[in-house]
Amino acid sequence: MTPPFRADHVGSLLRPPHLIEARTRRATGEISAGELRAIEDDAIRDVVRMQRDVGLLSATDGEFRRTAWHMDFIYRLGGIHPTDEKIQVHFRNAGGELDFESAALAIDEPVRLTETIFGDDFTFLAETVRAGVTAKLTIPSPSMVHYRGGRAAIDPAIYPDEERFWADLSAAYAEQARRVHALGCRYLQLDDTSLAYLNDPDQRRLLTERGDDAEHQHLRYIRQINAAIADRPADLRVTTHMCRGNFRSSWAAEGGYDFVAEALFSELAVDGFFLEFDDERSGGFAPLRFVPAGKTVVLGLVTTKRGELESKDTLKRRIDEAAKYVPLDQISLSPQCGFSSTVEGNVLTYDEQVAKLRLIVETAAEIWG
Q1: What's the CA gap between 155 and 229, in Å, rounded?
Q2: Residue 244 carries which DSSP code?
Q3: pTM of this prediction?
Q4: What is the pLDDT of residue 282?
Q5: C-alpha distances in angstroms, 50 versus 46, 60, 122, 243?
Q6: Three-class SS state of 325
Q7: Are the beta carbons of 225 and 239 closer than 8 angstroms?
Q8: Is the pLDDT higher at 355 or at 87?
Q9: What dihedral angle (degrees, nearest 10) is formed by the CA atoms of 77, 80, 85, 90?
Q10: At what angle are helices 33-54 and 17-27 packed, to 10 degrees?
């Protein structure tokens, strides 16, 4: 009865068309910021009700107030600013290829927490969920501040010693965790694509070419996440979600968790791991043998990248396969990623999304009761 739950989900949900339209109207100045927030409030009330109605014990705001799962948070950290340069991330899907583009970031002042990021958003969510449902806050992990730009994004005049950067970044995250806990947050998720990307030899090659230590980068990330959550309140449950990219039903990396598994599962001090396992590009379950007692593995067996509904029998069979490596009592079930990591969303319908969430709840109930 504590997070992560037997049936859970990653966080982002498909934005309703009228909300996307309202964001466009706000961008062109047709409506005010207050009018947009009122529309967001109504949409969040509806999506929280949906999560409750399908039987989930956790609820997010669907990330409805964000453009993307990570940058809306990162740009609000003190000392980090967008630049005129662009970062392109190459994605693939069953039908072809496409690119996601965002502004590059520069770390040109000391990193610090200048506000409780998403504080008002979480407070609204917490006031909206009903008794018996836990409000869950999702934020990008500290690794995501570093992964895209690496050392080159850090001004050497501010941080001649990279160790000081890492210390400041982890301290900012620790303060964020303390503040959202004070607002009532008891379920915090650190979303992290980097720890999954690093399993892909092509991703490690790209990091090596820009001068990073790709063979050991995951060890640094694990240490810094641990530093960020080391002093968290005892009743704050922290999980991490690791996928290989999620943009308009496409992915950026491939490969099982083998490269990072031993250090990741044995050293990362979170309470649970949301893991992507929806198809063959995610690899097998053997890396789960490194998961220690007391940690929950949330198997992302239900894809968010297409609308076709999985069968309960297939999900149960795959859970049985995973249970050869980690005890069944340490396993939970979820989608492999969010349904809308960016405002555009994945290529499936609202009803298909709901059906997948309901399938997860029903399958978990049949397995664990």
Answers
A1: 26
A2: S
A3: 0.94
A4: 85
A5: 6, 11, 18, 25
A6: coil
A7: no
A8: 355
A9: -50
A10: 160
